[in-house]
């Protein structure tokens, strides 16, 4: 009883499936195709067996040879089946088309492309068979024997044969898609979109198919063989080319995704920098704003409170320095070097004057600032104001990134050719993993962010300036032990 019910259910489902127009079409086309194929096998003459085998081999090998692009695999198969029409007649050509189609299915299946279902394979084989049979009908109607026609007619007539064959194939398949997708599928716009592929296909059937057909008629099996080798080889070369292009595309995809990651990193770096920048700009701007408002209300206040002018001027200098840093970094980023104007000057005197200005700053933080200069006068050829920025940056970092009661020491040594300036502190130090990137722009040690304000630009600029003097900068550091930044500059460059 249950078995009967299940059977009834299966039949009901099958009838349901058959009610769908696309299934009716699928089975109708497949049925006609199979009848055609069956008839072709039955009427196969033993005398044409060799020719048929050769053409089929050609169709199958060209299918396997061009597997990289399934669409194209179809088309090479079509070209061969059309080429077999004059020698083998409509039914022989149907067999060649079927062999090509099965070859395509086999090759696509083995190449990793999605495997078609049995219904689809039957449909494809049938479409190819019907299309080639109809094309053959047209051929024998208008081209009874192409060898007796004037030779210049041939290209024109083969062109028509190619267009007809291509369009028959196209419309058979498109009707199926239309039935599956429904009225939203616009046949005409699909036709327009696939024009380029059609032209390629028509060209392939027209030239490739036409030439093989001509050769087979004129020279028989030798003619087919003569074309088999170059065609097979070119199909194989094409496959290699496509595989190579594919791997190149894969590579390109990889590069694009790496670049995207890099860009994302860059964007987050910039975001962090902008956040810091707005923070750093806000303090001096607020100071300037507050004091300016005060002075607007009470201009007579200034003589009694001169520190207001000092605070405004310091804030302006901070802002200017910030802007200059950004400009320098942007310049470095654009691949340019920082502008250097060289002159002879006494580096020892410069270091001493910087020491003088920073002594008070250090004392405010209860930090002892020491100086150790080997020689009272060290003349070098360089940009004094830019090197001043370098030393200020290193000394202020030494103080900034050290807790209270620390020690910062500036050392200056010289030989005949070069000078070494180092700034040593016993402060927070830099973790080992941050050391390789510490001279990159916007880089800051994570744990330092809440200990001191900064933009992460100073060391990038230091490096830019030192390198513009043909010098080097290096760092030795250990977390919670301290750091030594050393620059080495040639005296004369
Ligand atoms: P900023 O000080 O504006 O953040 P820098 O480019 O001068 O930018 O420094 C980059 C980072 O290197 C700092 O944020 C800090 O984390 C680390 N750093 C620089 N100098 C020292 C130092 N002397 N001791 C410890 N860390 C330092």
In a nutshell, what does this entry contain?
With 493 residues, the chain is α+β, with helices and mostly antiparallel strands. It contains 13 helices and seven strands.
Q: What gyration radius follows from the Cα positions, in whole Å?
A: 42 Å
Low-confidence stretches: 1-5
Taking strands numbered 1, 2, ... along the chain, how are they ordered across the largest sheet?
2-4-5-7-6
Structural class: alpha+beta
Small molecules bound in the structure, each named once = adenosine-5'-diphosphate
Which term fits the overall shape? elongated
Annotation, overall tally of beta strands:
7
Average the pLDDT over all residues and give the rounded result: 82
> What percent of residues adopt helix (DSSP H or I)?
55-70%
Number of helices: 13
Name its key features.
493 residues, alpha+beta, binds adenosine-5'-diphosphate
Question: In words, what does this structure look like?
Answer:
It is a single chain. Helices cover 68% and strands 9% of the residues. It contains 13 helices and 7 strands. Helix 3 runs parallel beside helix 9 (195-297) and helix 7 crosses helix 9 (195-297). The structure holds adenosine-5'-diphosphate. Adenosine-5'-diphosphate binds at residues 393, 397-398, 401, 425, 427-430, 438, 443-445, 448, 454-460, 483.
């Amino acid at each position: 009883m249950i078995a009967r019910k299940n059977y009834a259910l299966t039949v009901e489902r099958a009838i349901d499936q058959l009610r769908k127009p696309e299934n009716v079409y699928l089975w109708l086309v497949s049925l006609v195709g199979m009848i055609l194929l069956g008839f072709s096998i039955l009427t196969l003459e033993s005398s044409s067996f060799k020719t048929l085998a050769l053409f089929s081999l050609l169709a199958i090998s060209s299918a396997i040879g061009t597997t990289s692009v399934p669409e194209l695999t179809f088309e090479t198969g079509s070209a061969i089946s059309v080429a077999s029409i004059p020698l083998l007649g409509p039914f022989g050509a149907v067999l060649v088309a079927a062999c090509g189609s099965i070859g395509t299915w086999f090759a696509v299946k083995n190449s990793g492309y999605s495997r078609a279902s049995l219904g689809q394979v039957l449909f494809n084989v049938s479409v190819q068979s019907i299309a080639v049979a109809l094309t053959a009908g047209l051929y024998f109607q208008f081209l009874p024997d192409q060898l007796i026609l004037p030779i210049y007619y041939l290209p024109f007539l083969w062109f028509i044969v190619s267009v007809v064959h291509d369009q028959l194939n196209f419309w058979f398949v498109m009707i199926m898609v239309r039935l599956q997708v429904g009225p939203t599928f616009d046949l005409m716009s699909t036709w327009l979109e696939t024009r380029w592929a059609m032209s390629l296909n028509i060209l392939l059937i027209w030239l490739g198919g036409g030439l093989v057909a001509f050769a087979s008629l004129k020279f028989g099996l030798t003619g087919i063989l003569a074309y088999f080798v170059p065609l097979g080889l070119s199909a194989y070369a094409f496959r290699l080319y496509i595989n190579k292009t594919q791997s190149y595309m894969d590579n390109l995809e990889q590069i694009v995704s790496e670049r995207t990651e890099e860009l994302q990193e860059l964007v987050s770096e910039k975001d962090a920098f902008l956040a810091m920048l707005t923070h750093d700009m806000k303090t001096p701007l607020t100071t300037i704003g507050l004091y300016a408002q005060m002075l607007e209300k009470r201009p007579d206040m200034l003589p009694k409170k001169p520190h207001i002018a000092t605070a405004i001027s310091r804030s302006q200098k901070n802002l200017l320095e910030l802007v200059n840093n950004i400009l320098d970094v942007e310049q470095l980023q654009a691949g340019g070097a920082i502008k250097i104007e060289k002159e002879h000057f006494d580096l020892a005197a410069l270091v001493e004057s910087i020491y003088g200005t920073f002594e008070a700053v250090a004392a405010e933080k209860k930090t002892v600032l020491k100086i150790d200069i080997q020689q009272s006068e060290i003349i070098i050829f360089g940009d004094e104001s830019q090197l001043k920025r370098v030393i200020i940056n290193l000394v202020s970092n030494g103080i900034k990134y050290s807790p209270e009661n620390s020690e910062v020491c500036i050392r200056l040594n010289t030989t005949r050719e070069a000078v070494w300036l180092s700034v040593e502190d016993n402060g927070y130090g830099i973790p080992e993993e941050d050391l390789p990137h510490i001279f990159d722009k916007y880089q800051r040690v994570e744990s330092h962010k809440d200990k001191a304000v900064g933009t992460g630009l100073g060391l990038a600029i230091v490096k830019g300036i030192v390198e513009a003097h043909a010098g080097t900068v290096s760092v030795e550091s250990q977390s919670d032990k301290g750091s030594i930044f050393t620059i080495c500059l040639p005296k004369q460059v």
